[in-house]
Amino acid sequence: MGSQTSRAESGAAAVVGEKVDSQLALRIFRLLVEIREAEQRAYDLFLQNLVKGTSHLSLGQEAVAAGCAAAMRPGDLSFCTYRGHAHTLARGVPVEKVLGELMGRDNGLMRGKGGSMHLTSVEHGVMGSYAIIGAHLPIACGAAWRAQYKGQSDVSVCFFGDGTTNIGAFHEALNFAAIWKLPVVFVCENNLYMEYTPIADMTAVKDPAAGRASAYGLEPIIVDGQDADAVYRVAKKAFDKARSGGGPSLIECLTYRYSGHSRADPAKYRPEGELERWKQRDPIKIYRARLLDSGVAESVIAQIETDVKQKLDKATEACKAAGPPADDLIWTDVYADGGWAWRN
Amino acid sequence: MAELTYRDAVARGIAQEMSRDPDVVFLGEDIAKPGGAFKASVGLLDQFGPLRVRDTPISEQAILGAAMGAAMTGLKPIAEIMFSDFLAVCFDYFANEFSKSRYMTNGQVKCPLVVRTGNGAGSRFGAQHSQSVENWVMMIPGLKVVAPSSPADVVGLLAAAVRDPDPVVFFEHKSLYPTKGEVPDGEIIDKLGTAKILRPGKDATILALALMVPRAMAAADKLRQEHGIDCEVVDVRSLVPIDTQTILGSVSRTHRLFTVEENPRLCGWGAELVSIAAEELFYDLDGPPIRITTPHIPLPSAANLEDQVLPTVDRIVATVHRSLNS
Predict the structure, then answer these.
(1) The model's pTM
(2) B92 — contact with chain A (CB < 8 Å)?
(3) B66–A128: do the CB atoms touch at under 8 Å?
(4) Residue B241, preceding peptide bond in cis (omega within 30° of 0)
(5) Same fold, B2-183 and B196-324
(6) What is the DSSP string of B178-212?
(7) Greatest CA separation found in chain B?
(8) In Å, how far are A90, A108, A140, A179, B100 from B104, measured between CA atoms?
(9) Contacts of B311 (CB under 8 A, 6+ apart)
(10) How many C-beta atoms surround the C-beta of residue A287 within 10 A?
(11) Per CATH, which fold does B2-183 belong to?
């Protein structure tokens, strides 16, 4: 981890100097805590057999979602993977709707039709969570093409894991975005494991995303993904560039997932001590300490933490009280006429 | 009324829709400056400019992903996949992405896009550039699938596809590109989900699609002349939605059903239609439904071999004649 952290710091150095103002810092902190608590709650609900199916948690990776979301503007678009709870929450989607979807309840974001891996809230700019590795990178390009064609100023931001850098769609999308100079920013969350296998064992270059950037005429950008401010600064610079017609960027965030790949994975493949070392650089711990250092009162921080927990408790109760989705939803929205008819 | 080739009808259909709606954009490999590998988009770059008619790299996933992202956010893209065989390299978008996003998101995400693709055999291109793959996408809930057989249908169904709010896969038959037909003047808008009775008859119904339509028509002529058998030929045109009213209506009048399919036999579109007819019209049938298909083989390249494996006029005539006289 040591060498990775130092590379991360050098990557972020380019934007050191721009101070994150205190209002924004409190917003970022709230996002970090909201994501952490919601993911922990999702896990607890799974243990209680109230969340079925699968779920891919972002515990440990919160700073990427919070830093990027804080740098996005309303109207910017997020394209997420199956590990998308964090990015969905970070855009302001109510936690009750996210948990409801995970629990297969009628109050869920998609009323139980999508599930954990497909969280989508178009009204919040969350244009989908995609569970086929790499599929959404070209899709984000298309949304960016629309902005370019219509002269609109929004940026499409596409989040994905390190494993995605070895699938064809990643490379097609990077080249496509570069030659069309599209307002799209690709954000790789390198959490060291593609699934159950270390990404380093499966990748020809040391940095799975940044190491490929030059192949598409892009600057290699690596940032400390445990530091939400560092992520924010790098992301904002890339978003500004995209917005002003400067074309795409590829950002590699160095981070770590505390849990396994999915709920089925106890992550026994990790070397002893690795998790503990990363937890020393926990994104919330880092941010909390920074807020205190900058003079924010402990009581203000504690109040945020209490608020988030209360909100989550309330949301959990609402989800438990919500009924299952109605059976007739099975037949809706296969086609645009609202139904599923394939014959007359 | 003007006589137009099937190939020129494609360009006319796209131009008609791009003139009407500035949100219609067109992307694909070699479609802009070169005018398309089959010259089906000649002139569109000059007419609509490089922002709306865009050449892409050889990146089928990027083409379809970009079309989807653009469609989700307000454009109405037409994407070309040069050969339909290449659907296999970007199949995720058909199987998992634009077909399912509306359903999975409870109606939030909309994908009004058209994928045009050159389908079918007859050009001696061998097994990777000649297939009829309409059945590959017909099986996926959420897609609409059409395959016109005439220039007029190309214009009208393309217009309908572009205006449709769902993703539509539009199969153009490569061997039909040079064929000619009358196309009415002015704007043409057809209707998806409609089959067409091209020739009424009382003895048997022959269902056909794309290149198999002119063969079925020629076979019907021969059956009439040589055997006195009066066949009704139905151009299926749209596989999803499928016009079962027209198709079953025809079968209930003729009491016999034949399909002429270019796709290899297993799980071809005719299997579904025969199954529907068997379930719903069993007691109206005077004989077994019979499928005339390409055998379950990859396509060979040599002219004499390729010509043998596709359903021919003679094979249709012989099959129908034998069956009706047994």
Answers:
(1) 0.96
(2) yes
(3) no
(4) yes
(5) yes
(6) T-EEEE-SS-----TT--EEEE--SSEEEEE-TTH
(7) 61
(8) 21, 12, 18, 32, 6
(9) B212, B215, B260, B261, B262, B292, B293, B294
(10) 25
(11) Rossmann fold (3.40.50)
Query: Domain residue spans in chain A?
Result: 2-331
Which of 158-217 (B) contact A at CB < 8 A?
Answer: 164-166, 193
- Residue A242 to residues A155, A169, B22: CA-CA distances in angstroms? 7, 21, 24
Residues A237-287: tens digit of each pLDDT: 999 999 999 999 999 999 999 998 888 888 999 999 999 999 999 999 999
Q: Answer yes or no: is pLDDT of A21 > 90.
A: no
- Among residues B166, B239, B98, B235, the alpha carbon closest in space to that of A127 is found at B98
Burial class (CB in 10 A: 0-12, 13-18, 19+), A255: buried
Report the candidate in A68, A189, A88 with the shortest Cα–Cα distance to residue A99: A88
- CA neighbours closer than 13 Å in the CB half-sphere of residue B51: 10
Q: What percent of chain A has pLDDT over 70?
A: 94
Asked whether the predicted pLDDT for residue A19 surpasses 90, the reply is no
Question: Which residue, among B59, B194, B240, would best test binding to A if mutated, counting the most A CBs under 10 Å from its CB?
Answer: B59
How far A232 CA sits from the closest chain B CA (Å)? 25
- The verdict on B29 touching A (C-beta cutoff 8 Å) is no
Would you name the residues of B annotated as active-site residues? 60, 129
Farthest CA pair distance, chain A: 69
User: Is residue A156 a contact partner of residue A147, using CB atoms and an 8 Å limit?
Assistant: yes
Q: How far apart are CA A69 and CA A86, in angstroms?
A: 10
Domain ranges of chain B: 2-183, 196-324
| B264: phi then psi, degrees, rounded to nearest 5 | -60, 155
Q: Report the mean per-residue pLDDT for chain A.
A: 94
- Helices A62-71 and A283-293 pack at an angle, to 10 degrees, of 60
C-beta of residue B207 within 8 angstroms of C-beta of residue B236: yes
Flag if B244 and A145 touch (Cβ within 8 Å). no
CB B67 within 8 A of CB B40: no
CATH no. for B196-324: 3.40.50.920
Token pair, residue B27, equals 């992307």
Q: Length of chain B, please?
A: 326
DSSP conformation letters of B111-142 = ---EEEEEE--SS---TTSS---HHHHHTSTT
Among the CATH numbers 3.30.559.70, 3.90.226.10, 3.40.630.10, 3.40.50.970, which is that of A2-331?
3.40.50.970
DSSP secondary structure code for residue A268 in this structure: T
